[in-house]
């Protein structure tokens, strides 16, 4: 029973990711960045927790983008026309993505500076 539910949940998750990648340019861009960042993170990271922070920050961006996409799709389904309240909701989702992107940028710039540009702690 548990394995059946787990397989079903995995299948649904992969289907959602596939649909998002096919229909949303931002999701495709973030998947490409994540694919390029995986090997780059091995070069930048000195410790495993650095690698986790680098990849985790980009994964967070993807997660927030997927949630934003879900909110936008639901809003468009419930109210296809323009509505100020729905516009505000969509703006909130967009702001969340922006915050996640800034966080990822800070993580990558900080760790690249500390581990690549100043590898011996010469601040």
Automatic annotation (TrEMBL):
A divalent metal cation binds at residues 24, 72. The chain crosses the membrane at residues 27-45, 51-71, 92-118. It comes from the Bacteria. Substrate binds at residues 26-30, 65, 94. Its cofactor is Mg(2+). Mn(2+), Zn(2+), Cd(2+) and Co(2+) support activity to lesser extents. ATP binds at residues 24, 72, 90-91. GO terms for molecular function: ATP binding; ATP-dependent diacylglycerol kinase activity; metal ion binding. CDD domains: DAGK_IM. It is found in: Cell inner membrane. It is a multi-pass membrane protein. The keyword Transferase applies. The active site is at residue 65. Its EC number is 2.7.1.107. The keyword Metal-binding applies. GO terms for biological process: phosphatidic acid biosynthetic process. It catalyses: a 1,2-diacyl-sn-glycerol + ATP = a 1,2-diacyl-sn-glycero-3-phosphate + ADP + H(+). Keywords: ATP-binding, Cell inner membrane, Cell membrane, Kinase, Lipid biosynthesis, Lipid metabolism, Magnesium, Membrane, Metal-binding, Nucleotide-binding, Phospholipid biosynthesis, Phospholipid metabolism, Transferase, Transmembrane, Transmembrane helix. GO terms for cellular component: plasma membrane. Belongs to the bacterial diacylglycerol kinase family. Catalyzes the ATP-dependent phosphorylation of sn-l,2-diacylglycerol (DAG) to phosphatidic acid. Involved in the recycling of diacylglycerol produced as a by-product during membrane-derived oligosaccharide (MDO) biosynthesis. This is Diacylglycerol kinase. It comes from Methylobacterium gregans. The lineage of its organism: Bacteria, Pseudomonadati, Pseudomonadota, Alphaproteobacteria, Hyphomicrobiales.
């Amino acid at each position: 029973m548990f394995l059946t539910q787990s397989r079903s949940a995995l299948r649904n998750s992969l289907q959602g990711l596939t649909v998002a990648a096919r229909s949303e340019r931002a999701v495709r861009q973030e998947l490409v960045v994540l694919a390029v960042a995986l090997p780059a993170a091995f070069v930048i990271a000195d410790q495993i927790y650095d690698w986790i922070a680098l990849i985790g920050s980009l994964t967070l961006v993807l997660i927030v983008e997927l949630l934003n996409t879900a909110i936008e799709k639901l809003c468009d389904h419930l109210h296809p026309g323009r509505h100020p309240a729905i516009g505000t909701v969509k703006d909130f989702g967009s702001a969340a993505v922006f915050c996640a992107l800034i966080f990822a940028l800070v993580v990558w710039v900080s760790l690249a500076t500390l581990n690549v540009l100043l590898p011996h702690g010469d601040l």
